[in-house]
Amino acid sequence: MPNSTVLDVVIVYNHHSATSASVASKNVTSPFLTKDDYNKAYGYFLSSLKRSGLTAGFTTSSDIIGPGKFKSYWTYAQKSWTKHNFPCRSSQIFDKFSPTTKNGKELRKLMLSSKTIKAFTDSSLFELFFDKLKTFKSLPSFSIPTVGIASSNHKTINSRLELLQTQIATHLHPSDFSHTIIVKDRHGAGGNHIYKFSKDYVESISNLVLGNPKMSFIIQPFIHFDKGFKYLGEYASTDIRLIYFNGKVVTAYLRMAEAGDFRCNQHQGGTLAYLSPDTLPSNVLAKADKIASILNKKQTLFTLDFIVSNSGHSYLLEGNTGPGLTWDPTDQIDKLEAKKLVDLIVKEFKNRIDRVRSRLSPQYNLPAKNPFLPLASETLFPVLIP
Q1: Where are the domains of the chain?
Q2: Are 303 and 251 in contact (CB under 8 A)?
């Protein structure tokens, strides 16, 4: 294998969504073949890293060949993407890769298998939020009653529904929960694989599990929240997202579901609007700050999503360590807010790398400014790169 190019930061995206730079076709000129807004957003990310004096590349999960090592990568300059069909490596990883398959999990494990490789997100927080059942068990007093479903057996499903009813009956606000059941992919995202059943629960859940043998599900009671939060004088089914970074809220926005739908995600047709701190419901902000205090992850990025029931009670829907960094090209405010978030991430990378450089400079008698420039030697930095 040829010597690897050493980069300060590598962005790793799921290969199901982005294309590897190793693909030889001349028609592949950027990582995202059908999502130009993603190309612009991650092009901006790489440009922001470069402006901060950091070398960086974009790669995919299919490129992983070792701890912090990748077989190919993209770079971005002058509004153009360039393929590099040879290896790169880095000790700093921005991971947009949340695998659910055995192979994907093994690749992620390989990518982070050395203690010298640092993912941008906290690993324990990633595990907590990636699993919705684990989120509930860790934060039950803030969350909607939740039970796992792992079998299509009718008797087993009945017992799980009974457990859910027990959780509802002992909840502080049982009247918030309807008789309708929500079934979700336990590891899902983007509003995908969410189902709503108002009758024939056992049969419906059994058929769903049988039809998706590789998925795990959770069940929750549906909360009526179409009149829980008013925006610009109008009620709508709304969730509120708070983005925490370095222990404080840096961005807040709401997502309103399309008429007739309850899913608020933008990928499902939801409408986004940014909120100023004074427009946030006080009970949402208080709960979010309490959760953030419990988590005590002050040097990482994460989001907390809430809904407000029609009776005014707030509930944690889920957490996320990988919020979207793209923007609506027709919405100037969305673009500015997304870029602001990217720049905060870049600033944190800069701080982390500067701290490492400061520690290593005396040891290797190297200038603190940039000891991570691409090197011919593979062994100059054994502390950082295996």
Answers
A1: 5-121+330-364, 142-223, 230-320
A2: no
Model confidence pLDDT, tens digit, residues 279-328: 888 999 999 999 999 999 877 899 999 999 999 999 999 999 988 899 98
* Integer Cα distance of 107 and 316 in angstroms: 31
Q: Where are the beta strands (DSSP E) in 114-247?
A: 118-119, 147-149, 177-185, 194-197, 217-223, 230-231, 234-235, 238-245
What pLDDT is recorded for position 226?
A: 84
CATH number of the domain located at residue range(s) 5-121+330-364 in this protein? 3.40.50
Measured CA to CA, the distance from residue 152 to residue 155 in angstroms comes to 9
Q: Are 167 and 145 in contact (CB under 8 A)?
A: yes
- Cα four-point dihedral sign 344, 345, 350, 355: positive
CATH of 230-320, one of 3.90.230.10, 1.25.40.390, 3.40.50.150, 3.30.470.20: 3.30.470.20
Tokens 């790398």: give the residue: 353
Q: What percentage of the chain's residues is helix, strand, coil (to nearest 5)?
A: 35, 25, 40
Binned at pLDDT 50, 70 and 90, residue 94 comes out as very high
End-to-end CA distance of the chain: 15
On the question of pLDDT at 362 being above 90, the answer is: no
* Strand, coil or helix: 103: helix
pLDDT of residue 234: 77
Give the CA-trace dihedral at 49, 51, 55, 59, to 10 degrees: 40
CATH code linked to domain 142-223: 3.30.1490.20
pLDDT, tens digit (0-9, with 9 covering 90-100), for 184-239: 999 987 778 899 999 999 999 999 999 999 899 999 999 998 888 888 787 778 89
Instruction: Supply the DSSP symbol for 325.
Output: -
Phi/psi at 48 (5° precision) = -65, -40
Q: What does each C-alpha distance from 378 to 88, 206, 368 come to in angstroms? A: 11, 54, 19
Nearest CA-CA partner of 5 in 356, 376, 384, 385: 376
